[in-house]
Write a structure and sequence with these properties.
four-stranded antiparallel beta sheet, single chain, about 20% strand
């Protein structure tokens, strides 16, 4: 019985390059088999990376400063894969990001550029940001307010204070450095 006719066969040299497990068929020829799977991207962190990660939608990307970025006009490059598996690259002009009408990628760029303290070491953004796609725009300030209200209703005043601190940080960013006004 020849199983390889119903599976994708990839040469052994390709398998060795990719570090995949090899199977040896009865004929002694080295091959391995792969199933059809969606694209999976792995983003490596380097010294010049500001941030790398993703969210629950499949959006995955890294952030780094553009070559033409300056202190007066910081520009961040976002490069990755959107929630549909399509590669993207964007330029984010930090001075133009409005937390009341921003994408999750723009907010991550703000978070990284200003080194905003992350709640629990993970994020400074409302948890709903984990459901946003690449081009989804939201009012992050309203998202913070809703989360804070919900936490207060649950009696979680400790967490409410943490999210209030994050919200206040984003509300005060343009005032924090007069050169970004």
């Amino acid at each position: 019985m020849n199983i390889s006719s119903s599976l994708n066969t990839v040469s052994s040299s390709y398998g060795q390059q990719k570090g995949n497990q090899m199977k040896t068929p009865a004929s002694g020829e080295k091959t391995f088999y792969t199933a059809e799977t969606p694209k999976v991207y792995q983003i490596f962190t380097t010294d010049n990376m500001l941030w790398t990660g993703g969210n629950g939608t499949g959006l995955s990307y890294c952030l780094k400063y553009a070559d033409d970025s300056t202190d007066e006009n910081p520009v961040v490059l976002a490069k990755g894969v959107d929630e549909n598996g399509k590669e993207f690259e964007q330029r984010i002009y930090i001075n133009d990001v409005n937390p009341s009408n921003a994408t999750v990628v723009e907010m991550r760029a703000l978070e990284a550029h200003y080194k905003v303290e992350k709640q629990g070491g993970f994020t400074s953004l409302p948890l709903e940001a984990g459901n946003m796609g690449l081009n989804d725009r939201r009012d992050f300030i309203s998202m913070f307010k809703k989360s804070i209200e919900d936490l207060n209703k649950l009696g979680r005043f400790d967490l409410s204070l943490l999210w209030t601190k994050s919200m206040d940080t984003y509300l005060n960013l343009p005032n924090a450095n007069s050169k970004y006004k």
